[in-house]
Design brief:
The structure holds three protein chains of three kinds. Helices cover 53% and strands 0% of the residues of chain B. Chain B is mostly helical. Chain C is globular, with a radius of gyration of 27 Å. Classes of the chains: A mainly alpha, B mainly alpha, C alpha+beta. At the A-C interface, α1, α5, α6 and α7 of A face α13, α14, α15, α16 and α17 of C.
Chain lengths: 184, 146, 665
């Protein structure tokens, strides 16, 4: 209960401070700056999330500076000076920290280059196989008949018996013509 | 109390684990790997592919000439798989022996060396079973010959 | 009861060691009896761990504070239903949960193993039991949940108030079970390679268990987001926080895996790639568990800090290096049975999808690891949301784009004309949606692209459903609904996948809506005061404080009006826990498909006024609804389907008569 009383008192003190600053600033901009700053005392939370005293003060400072006409960079620099570079939620794009941004980009780029190459080389190897029809082997005929009988009896793609032909017709027959044009 | 239950539980575990060693005398062989389809595509998988191909054809994703071409290819693959399966079945002496032993023990004299084998792993279950004891697949009721 | 639990742990360890060693030895020496006995031992670990689990539960229920774990994570005031949560509130208990889940899943996997993998099953059992032994040994020697205090304290320390939430009943168990379930497909792959089967034998088991683990992780992640949304009191749901990332990365790798495994199933391709993927997923899952148990990166979710870190790190190294060695050992034997027919095919689309998923995973891993690298320079750096949003955002949009194209491509080969025809309607729908949104005044490029792509994916799926149902109806004469349901039932993996895709679109909808169009306002109101947020008018009534024993609960009532009409009276809660010196909030949320009105108290002042954070989060409702849809899709796609009956094998007419003729020729 003592603790509770202390908490309420401190909260009252906060409230005294936290009268809304003059709204000579853009709240959208303030929020987006909030989201770029890590609260120094809570693990991995940005100040717009954190509900501790320090982050409240930081939010207030952001708004005050904005109202005084400070730019986003100036505000961020101010906090970096005060709390060190780890206050930034994303590493700055300069110096050693450029690495943080370059490595993912390089990795993704490498993949973007590699995958089409892989697909292309696999597709090239594949061509001759698909082109020629495998010849009917000696003695395979009875098995082929058994397979056809099987297929006729079993369910097809639509969950209906396939019937003797193996498949029903597609929705419209007209499309066959333009297929042959494209491939011819 | 806890110690007693714990000891009992431990003994129970030991008994279960040791049981296979004791029952070996009874001559129940544990089925080795059946005829293995090393690197070979199973017939069922090919049928599955045909089915998908057909669906894609009916949905208009595959044009007719590709459909015909691929269906033909799959049919030949299926026929080859079927032949391989049938030949393997005929040429697996261990498997046949096992089936015969099992059949004899089950009092199931197969007529003409043939009995309703499990459709999945092809062991011969005892009579009157609905589920294959080896792989758990559902067994069909013995069909009339024809 | 705690003694019995401790005894059972050791019994389980003995059984697991025996099962692992026995089955591998039995296989190598061809001893079938040893194999059978080891398999029984696998089943028995479930029994032993079940008893251990029950005895820890009993200790909680009996308030047995002599057990250190019970004393640390519960107290007399804790209602019995939170026993389930307290069970895994700390390291020791969650290790026991993980071990129990692993033993149950191993037993089921071994029990149901199809004939194809029977030959290499002993190695699979060996791998699974090594993993299980690790967890059991860690518990036995380093973090025993049954350790006793030298005295019996009168009351426990109590459960962490953040954990007393409905989401906590499901989020951690789903996530932990999902992480450990990755071991099963991994063990099937590794086992079959150890046994020299480098073909497609393990694919079916790998796919089923991969999907199970994928769905568990996905629901765990969604539930975790929901929990964060309702309880952490800032209105967001995803931090890109190291622990979240640790669960997100294996999920990404598994997503890639469940797609590319289909290529191997259908076409016998991507054999090496699938093995690599499942190894990566397993490594990332181990990393995820390592992050939870005493990882070195600070996080809101890392409730346990322990000296186990190094042990896990060593096991992580083993879990990554050993499969890699096996992979290179078997490398020469792994050759794909088929080659790619065309660059314009579903296989190729899956390859690109794999690339993007792994890119997201890579970026996420890099973001998690970079601060550790930077620390070696002697300074600290943070990598948080802005980094991930900027780098992963475009990649995730690319994935949604692929989701719109991939399902419309056939296997093997498509012609440009057929692709154009299939994509035309969805693409036009997407563009139409973008046009309408622009006309309505939306200017956010990312959001526009996102909504457009979502519309494209959804319309593509619905159009294909319609085409299939119409096609089937024409042949069968059934009504549309029946035709559609039968169509689904005839092609479960495909249509289950579509349902999951719809769920992903719903999640994307929620994420985009809440990220780009949320409104946030922090206010302090005295009773009777009103505030206007968007088109809502909120009137703060009063706060009541109640003493609940372990906490003081402040319930603030707020009336929400729109257009002068009372919509709802919201009751947001903030509880102060003196023993933890912390406050836990429970947001009051008025949730509709259009938008959420979210009110959470941030402070209670002595004069009766209250600090409120008010948010309007558009579309976030869809994200939570996506969870059940996603699970439903997974179930459809996993539901066993009778193999397309190879009647030739069954019917005596073909198989049993044919051999004689064949042998004759």
């Amino acid at each position: 209960m003592v603790l509770l009383a202390a908490l309420l008192l401190s909260a009252a003190a906060v409230q005294a401070q936290e009268s809304e600053p003059d709204s000579g600033y853009d709240e959208e901009e303030a929020l987006s700056i909030d989201r770029m700053l890590i609260c120094p005392v809570c693990p991995a939370e940005t100040i717009d999330q954190a509900q501790v005293e320090l982050s409240r003060q930081m939010r207030r400072i952001v708004r005050e500076m904005l109202a005084q006409g400070a730019s986003r960079e100036e505000i961020l620099d101010f906090f970096v000076e005060r709390y060190g570079p780890e206050v930034l939620a994303a590493p700055p794009r300069s110096g050693f920290n450029l690495l943080a941004w370059v490595i993912p980009a390089a990795g993704v780029l490498a993949g973007v280059v590699a995958v089409p190459l892989i697909i292309w080389s696999m597709a090239r190897r594949g061509r001759p196989m698909a082109a020629g029809e495998p010849p009917l082997e000696e003695g395979l005929e009875p098995y082929l008949q058994a397979v056809d009988r099987d297929l006729a009896e079993s369910e097809g793609g639509l969950g209906l018996p396939m019937g003797e032909e193996g498949a029903g017709p597609p929705e419209d027959e007209t499309r066959d013509e333009d297929e042959t044009k494209v491939n011819g | 109390m806890a110690l007693v239950i714990g000891t009992l539980l431990g003994l129970f575990c030991i008994a279960i684990v040791a049981y296979p060693f004791l029952k070996t005398r009874l001559g129940v062989g544990t089925g080795g790997a059946g005829p293995s389809g090393e690197q070979a595509v199973q017939l069922g998988d090919i049928y599955d592919r045909i089915r998908t191909l057909q669906l894609e054809y009916q949905l208009g994703q595959v044009p007719q000439h590709l459909y015909r071409e691929q269906l033909q290819e799959y049919r030949l693959q299926a026929a080859a798989a079927l032949r391989r399966q049938v030949q393997e079945q005929a040429a697996a002496p261990e498997w046949l022996l096992e089936q015969e032993i099992l059949a004899a023990r089950g009092g199931l004299r197969s007529e003409g060396g043939e009995a309703a084998a499990c459709p999945k792993c092809r062991t011969l279950p005892g009579p009157g079973l609905k589920v294959c004891p080896e792989c758990g697949a559902e067994l069909e009721a013995p069909q009339g010959r024809g | 009861m705690a003694d019995l639990g401790a005894i059972c742990l050791w019994i389980a360890l003995a059984l697991a060691s025996y099962a692992g060693v026995g089955s591998v030895a039995g296989k190598i020496r061809g001893n079938a009896v040893l194999l059978e006995s080891s398999r029984s031992a696998v089943y028995l670990t479930v029994l032993a761990l079940l008893v251990a689990t029950l005895s820890l539960v009993a200790s909680f229920v009996n308030r047995d504070f002599e057990v250190a774990y019970v004393a640390q994570h519960s107290d007399l005031a804790m209602p019995h239903r939170f026993t389930w949560v307290a069970f895994y509130a700390g390291n020791e208990g969650s290790l026991l949960y993980i071990a129990f889940a692993l033993s149950v899943m191993s037993a089921i996997a071994v029990w149901l193993a199809p004939a194809k993998v029977r030959d290499t099953l002993p190695y699979t059992i060996g791998v699974l039991m090594v993993v299980l032994c690790f967890f059991l040994a860690v518990m036995g020697f380093m973090a025993n949940p049954f350790d006793k205090l030298p005295f019996v304290p009168p009351d426990g320390e109590g459960i962490n108030p953040l954990l007393t939430h409905l989401g906590m009943f499901f989020h951690p168990p789903a996530l932990m079970a999902g992480l450990i379930a990755v071991s099963i497909p991994f063990a099937f792959a590794l086992g079959s390679h150890l046994g020299g089967k480098t073909g497609d034998e393990w694919v079916d088991s790998g796919r089923v268990w991969g999907l199970i683990s994928w769905a568990l992780l996905a629901s765990g992640l969604l539930l975790g987001s929901w929990w964060a949304y309702t309880i952490l009191g800032w209105g967001g749901f995803w931090f890109w926080d190291p622990v979240e990332n640790a669960a997100f990365m294996p999920w990404l790798a598994l997503t890639a895996f469940v797609h590319s495994i289909m290529v191997q199933k259908r076409r016998g391709m991507f054999r090496m790639w699938n093995v690599v993927l499942i190894n990566v997923a397993f490594g990332l899952a181990l990393y995820g568990m390592f992050m939870n148990r005493g990882g070195s990166v600070p996080s809101v979710h890392s409730f346990g800090e322990s000296a186990l870190g190094w042990t896990f790190l060593v096991f992580l190294a083993v879990g990554v290096v050993v499969p890699l060695l096996v992979f290179f050992w078997r490398y020469p034997k792994m050759r794909s049975a088929q080659t790619l027919d065309s660059m314009l095919s579903r296989e190729a689309a899956f390859l690109v999808n794999n690339l993007l998923l792994l890119a997201v995973a890579f970026v996420t891993l890099w973001g998690t690891v970079y601060p550790l690298i930077y620390r070696t320079t002697g300074e600290e750096i943070s990598v948080a949301r802005p980094f991930y949003d900027q780098v992963n955002g475009p990649l995730l949009l690319g994935l949604i784009f692929l989701m719109g194209i991939g399902p419309l491509l056939p296997w093997r080969r498509a012609t440009p004309a057929s692709v154009r025809r299939a994509l035309l309607a969805p693409a036009l729908t997407g563009l139409a949606v973008v046009a309408v949104l622009v006309a309505l005044g939306m200017r956010e490029p990312f959001a526009l692209i996102g909504f457009g792509l979502g519309a494209m994916v959804a319309s593509g799926i619905f159009l294909e459903w319609r085409r299939g149902a119409v096609s089937r109806r024409r042949s069968s004469g059934e009504n549309y609904l029946l035709a559609f349901l039968r169509l689904i039932s005839a092609n479960r993996p495909r249509y289950g996948g579509y349902v999951v895709h719809l769920a992903v679109v719903m999640v994307a909808l929620g994420v985009i809506g809440a990220t780009f169009f949320d409104t946030q306002k922090d206010v302090v109101l005295s009773p009777g005061e009103t505030v206007v947020v968007e088109d809502y008018e909120l009137r703060y009534l009063s706060t009541t404080a109640t003493d609940k024993g372990n906490r003081t609960e402040f319930v603030s009532s707020v009336e929400a009006y729109r257009d002068g009409e009372l919509l709802d009276t919201l009751r947001a809660t903030r509880s102060f826990y003196p023993s933890f010196n912390m406050a836990a909030t429970r947001a009051a949320i008025r949730s509709t498909p259009v938008e959420d009105l979210y009110v959470v108290p941030s402070e209670n002042l002595p004069n009766g006024s209250v600090g409120l954070r008010i948010l309007v989060n558009p579309l976030i409702w869809w994200m939570w609804v996506a969870g059940p849809v996603l699970v439903l899709g997974t179930i459809i796609s996993l539901w066993p389907q009778a193999a397309p009956s190879p009647a030739a094998v069954r019917s005596p007419g073909v198989v049993h008569d044919r051999p004689t003729t064949v042998r004759g020729t």
